[in-house]
């Protein structure tokens, strides 16, 4: 049984939304649907947008989403123990998977692949 893991949930956020705020919000909700099952297995779910969006908001017009979203995920992956790659086309999620592999982190493609953490963690 593994220790408690910090697991980055990676999947479409802006992809396929064509800038439509409702579709972007729906993509985020799909990512967030994986949070409870990860938590229920004894781990800590993390979504890069949970960190990046307040940064982007506070930067105002000084930056673009790409200048914040991708670097945030990269920085988070220095602290995460694994990645859950959700279905759907996403350049950012594919980059997260690539970085995870480079750093030797496990990448899960289904919630059922994530092991349950031991109780003593």
Structural class: alpha/beta
Radius of gyration: 14 Å
Order of helices and strands: EHHEHHEHE
**Could you name the CATH topology?**
Rossmann fold
Query: In the CATH hierarchy, what is the class?
Result: Alpha Beta
Q: Low-confidence stretches at least 5 residues in length (pLDDT < 50)?
A: none
Gross morphology = globular
Oligomer: single chain
Annotated CATH architecture: 3-Layer(aba) Sandwich
Instruction: Count all strands and give the number.
Output: 4
Description:
The chain has 121 residues and is an alpha/beta fold. The chain has a single domain (6-113), classed as Hypothetical protein PA1492 (Rossmann fold), CATH 3.40.50. It contains five helices and four strands. A four-stranded parallel sheet has the order 2-1-3-4.
Key traits:
12% strand; 4 strands; 45% helix; 121 residues; Rossmann fold; globular; 5 helices; alpha/beta; four-stranded parallel sheet
Summed up:
This protein has five helices and four strands; from the N terminus they run E-H-H-E-H-H-E-H-E. With 121 residues, the protein is an alpha/beta fold.
Strand and helix layout:
Elements: E1 6-10, H1 21-32, H2 35-40, E2 44-46, H3 48-59, H4 65-77, E3 82-85, H5 91-102, E4 107-108
Parallel strand pairs: 1-2, 1-3, 3-4
């Amino acid at each position: 049984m593994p220790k408690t893991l910090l697991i980055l949930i990676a999947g479409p956020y802006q992809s396929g939304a064509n800038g439509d705020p409702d579709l972007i919000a729906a993509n985020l909700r799909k990512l967030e649907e994986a949070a409870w099952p990860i938590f229920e297995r004894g781990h800590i779910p993390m979504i890069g947008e949970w960190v990046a969006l307040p940064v982007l908001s506070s930067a105002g017009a000084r930056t673009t989403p790409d200048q914040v979203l991708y670097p945030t995920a990269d920085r988070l992956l220095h602290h995460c123990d694994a990645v859950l790659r959700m279905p759907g086309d996403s350049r950012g999620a594919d980059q997260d998977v690539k970085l995870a592999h480079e750093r030797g982190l496990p990448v899960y493609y289904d919630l059922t692949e994530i092991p349950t953490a031991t109780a003593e963690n």
